Amino acid sequence: MTRRPVRRAWAALKLWVPLGAWLTFVLAPYAWMFITSIKPPNELYTKAVRYWPGQPTFEGYRLLLETTPFLTYMRNSGIVAVSTCAVALVVATAAAYCFSRIPFRGKGVMLFGFLVTQLFPSVLLVLPLFLIMRSLGILNTPPALILAHSTFAVPFSTWMLTGFFNAIPRELDEAATIDGCTRLQTFRYVLLPLSAPGVAAALTYIFIYSWNEFIYALTFTADLRARTLPVGLQTFMGEFIIRWDLLTAGGVITALPIVFFFMLVQRQLIAGLTAGAVKG
Amino acid sequence: MALPLFLLSPALALLVGIVAYPIGRAVWLSFHRLEILQPDLTRFVGLEHYQALLQDPVIRIALQNSVVWVVGVVVFQFLGGLVGAIILNRRFPGRAVVRGLALIPWATPSVLVALMWTWMLDGNYGLLNDLLVKAGILSRFQPWLAQPWSALPAVILADVWQGIPFFAVMLLAALQAIPEDLFEAAKIDGASAWRVFCHVTLPLLLPTILITTMLRMIWTANYMDLIMIMTGGGPGYSSLTVPLHAYYTAYKRLDFGYGATIAIVQVVILAAAIVLYLRQLRANEGMVQ
User: Fold this and answer.
1) pLDDT exceeding 70 applies to what percent of chain A?
2) In-domain check, residue B14
3) Shortest alpha-carbon distance between residue B256 and chain A (Å)
4) What is the pTM of this model?
5) Facing B18 at nearest CB: one of A16, A148, A266
6) Which of these, A95, A149, B69, B146, could form a disulfide with B11 (CB 3.0-4.6 Å)?
7) How does DSSP classify residue B47?
8) Per-residue pLDDT reduced to its tens digit, B81-101
9) Going along B5-145, which residue ranges are E strands?
């Protein structure tokens, strides 16, 4: 009689202990960032580290938003990320439709070439791009970043979208054509609605990439006019290295939209991420 | 042919303009001395930068650090990712959510990763120091990022943390693609869990492992955000890697020509490493068959 509950408890232990350890390892740094952000300054720099603030406060957030250009950085990041999403999605969708539905010579080479561009180090590209952007006169403006981010987001989003389009049976296209749909109509009324989750995943990938990108943003921007959040946070780290309450508050606000979008489409995003690797 | 060309042209225009042309410009830069403030004085210097490379004492340190960085990061990310994939592969309620949560570090900006870990590794108020001292492993707090011997390992730790979830999800996908009956057949034959892992799971995971590891190596070798923010390559040159050396040469010393040269050398070494890796793979495959 007593053996079964014991065995069941043991099985549960064997499952949840490693799982708990794994989740702690992954999530603890976020928890610590949040806890730090609600500590009042006098509890931050104590001899013994306190694991939970005696008097939690959101003062750090208020100071961050009122006394620093954080909101300007956030606005710049929003402008760049949303524009990048628009540009990169249109470009990648057109390319993915082509790869998925139109037979043409050199397709394999072309798709491979798209992915190879991902392998070049940013440091190789960022030096000449800096000079190019300078001669175009768009240094320190959002378009410089939109252009760079779109380009580097396109290959992978194309790859993902091609996979999602390929998963839709061609018979549906043919049926629509027989019913008198043009190519554009077939795309608009058949392919696009059916691949909506895939498009959402690609969009999220582009957004995350652009929102997070650091090296190009650091190199192409010089001041508040175009600086994005990652660069802003990095300058904070140099400037008020002692104000960890403000820094972590900024970190929490930066992470929120990413975590939100990510959790929303994580299933499709993971499907898109892993599609290539498993077949490979 | 007209339609595909029309649909692909925006993507091609971007890739040619923002990737291919700059690569060409980088090669051009490596043969020139660029005067950033007086472009008229820019002149052709032939192989001068490449010769300077041979005399550069810093590049040697940077190369060593790069090797330690890539090997350290990829080995620990792989091991951690494998453990994670095995944990996440079991059936339990809420698995999809847990899998999503586990991948969040992948979607976290590198600046944030740097910020969180710089704070946890802090020499005066760091959580990690506190825990290690309380556990009796350390006798006093260490300024991890400010000591030459520990700076690079500390940044490696942060990057391993950021990259393990991605590895785990890749391996998990491959794990789930293995047909269930293979495990059952092995079990019926009386194989222990360890033997099943060695003789069924691992061989079937191998293609995914090899591809993911290669992509990770390339990506890690080129990745410089974390090091730049956490240590700036210091103290001294103790955590300076090759791409970081290239970047600082260009932007701190304003020597774009030499910076581009270092970046090109990085690409060449990496390409050679990939070719060797792929050739080794093919040779091993031949041996098995």
Assistant:
1) 95
2) no
3) 7
4) 0.87
5) A148
6) A95
7) T
8) 999 888 888 888 888 788 888
9) 32-33, 43-44
Which of B101, B116, B244 is closest, CB to CB, to A251? Answer: B116
The token pair that represents A96 in the structure block? 């993915």
Report how far residue B4's alpha carbon sits from residue A14's, in angstroms, rounded to the nearest whole number.
54
Average predicted confidence (pLDDT) for chain A: 86
pLDDT bucket at A280, cuts 50 / 70 / 90: very low
pLDDT, averaged across chain B: 86
Tell me the β-bridge partners of B32. Answer: B44
Q: Convert the pLDDT of each residue in B260-276 to its tens digit.
A: 999 999 999 998 988 88
CATH at residue A274 = 1.10.3720.10
Task: Flag whether B182 is in a domain.
Answer: yes
How many domains does chain B fold into?
1
Total count of domains within chain A: 1
Q: What is the pLDDT of residues B34-78, one digit of tens each?
A: 877 777 777 888 788 898 888 888 999 999 999 999 999 999 999
Domain range for B98: 56-254
Residue A112: how many other CB atoms lie within 10 Å: 9
Q: What angle do CA B113, B97, B105 make, to 5 degrees?
A: 10
CATH number at residue B135: 1.10.3720.10
What distance in Å separates residue B281's CA from the closest CA in chain A?
14
Residues in chain B: 289
Q: Provide the ipTM.
A: 0.85
C-alpha distance across the termini of chain B, in Å: 42
Give the domain range for residue A273: 69-279
Is A42 among the domain residues? no
Q: B289 in a domain, yes or no?
A: no
Question: Within a domain: residue B277?
Answer: no
Can you tell me the mean pLDDT for A95-123?
Answer: 86
Distance CA B26, CA B199 (A): 48
